[in-house]
Amino acid sequence: MDIEQKKIVFATSAAILVLSTTIGIFMLRRRTGKRKTSIDGITSTPVQVKESKKRITVEEMVLPTDWKQIGTVSNLHIYPMKSGRRVNLTKAEVMEIGLKEICRKGRLPLRDRVFIVYRENDKTFISNKTYPKMLKLTVNTLGTNIVELSLEKDKIIFNIPEYTDEKFVNLWKENVPTIDCGDEVGAWISKLLLGKDSGLRVGYWPDKLRRNVTEVYSDYMRVYENLCNDFTGAYSDIGSYLIVNQASIDDLNLKINDAQSRVTANNFRPNIVVVGAEPYSEDKWTWIKIGEDAIFRTFKPCTRCSVTTINPDTLVRSKQHEPIKTLKSYRQVQETKLKEVEGDSPVMGMYMGVHTKGKIKFGDPVYIGSN
To answer: Distance (Å, rounded) from C-alpha 280 to C-alpha 301?
Structure first.
């Protein structure tokens, strides 16, 4: 075999090897059913949807014909900064992505979880679970786009930049769009939380966009049929609204032996607190109407983590790991298909999405609906 023939044989063998490798990788990806996506340098591997089923839209949902009052609104809260300090409201506007403050003209209304703190290097959000001091992080607005952030005696005032290019923050498994609030704010929050001049950034929700959780929460969507993109909030974990039943919290406190470890509704960071209902009746609430107009659809119980063990006013963490310790003894999901996605995390409260917008206030009647 001469030199030219050897070259031809070698080239042919190399081509066959490359083709075989490519086919092998393709078949492996088909078998595993996984694909990687990368946005803004963040790579994730979404869980594959196991069941192919057309999901009903909000517009297609059939409203109940009968409504029964089960209680009244005792508290309304928003948390303008995710993991930050709560703002107590007496009245609010119900919007798709969460409660909105009703305020005077000329000032940007505060809304629920529209600000977020995240790491500069990997774009991953940080929370009060790791940095309890964030529970004191307060947001005020001074104009149509002027914001004041304060943490105890430290504060900074800045303008929210215009949304010009796509930036993302990694919220659990999801890449969520954000407006970076600038270097000065980033340096300020880094100094307070990290003791460094850099490392953290502050993001603001670009109001023009909605989240898409179809892939990243496909495991939840498989078992919670009413979970949909229209029910997501800005930077809330998954739902735009969280409602809790005060009677359930009262019953929980009766089960916690150590009186100093007992909790309030504030430990659970809800948007709406209801009084007058039976304990744990919220587990079966599906449709909820508040006041004259606002209608919500529940879609998932809220699993609870160690954030609830931190007193939001004193920042003291429960040494007995309450209320999680007691909740785990009787408030875990029981259905096998739910346990597959929720594990042993206990539940308290229900996530909801908006079907019909409106205005709600302290003392409004709360109804549950049935067809």
So the answer is: 11
